[in-house]
Amino acid sequence: MARKTKPIRSDIAWSTPDRIEVRGKSLPDELLGKIDLGDMAFLQILGRMPTPQESKVFNAISVTLVEHGITPSALAARITYAGAPEALQAAVAAGLCGLGSVFVGSTEGTAKMLYEALPPGTKGADLEKIAGDTVASFRARGQIVPGLGHPLHKPVDPRAPRLFQIAKENGFSGDYVKLEQLICAEAERLSGKMLPVNATGAIGAICCELGLPWKIVRGIGVFARAIGLVGHILEESNNPMAIEIWQRVEDEATAHIRPGA
Description:
Blueprint: E1 13-16, E2 19-22, E3 25-26, H1 27-31, H2 37-46, H3 52-64, H4 72-83, H5 88-96, H6 106-117, H7 127-140, H8 159-169, H9 175-191, H10 199-210, H11 214-238, H12 242-254
Antiparallel strand pairs: 1-2, 2-3
């Protein structure tokens, strides 16, 4: 019996010899020179152009995630580039592989947590009770609440209040932002520690305000950080540090077993 086949379909883009169309718009005529990279990302992901307010908020969260110094992902990219300078794309990919629950990808964890605690369309919820229940649930499982705390930025991650301000100015400061802030306060109260809403926590909450599916929220960090990693690789090519880092780490890590050390 012949296998029943499923139609193969994509609604994102198509090309002919004289035309390229993306999400129903002519790339040369309607997009090139008329929209910025953030708006193009929004169009590609959601299938429609953002409103002016959505554009400001989405571009702000994208810019936030481009760069944060010599992070593990930047180091991975630089060290990979040192070993394979002919493959810039491999170095960028190596850096992107480190975006997860600890770095950048916690945007996804925050958005998932907030959607589960407050399903879209919920009205008149007791946000304080939800915040308490959410923190209690994470503590009972021995898990870290995503989007809170930072090893460097204390008592405030300066990115978070600015992002919340931009969201508010553009009409995207509702129950999800409020819930994230209440979760922060409850986690700090129970732990007795400074656990500010960090940049990824703010972004996760704002992505919920924008109505973005939680499973693609990490993707914003992926495309944004790719830009940052290209910058790191160019700097590495002009002013290398990867080989020096490798040699120092090897010297220190093996000093206790090397003769005469």
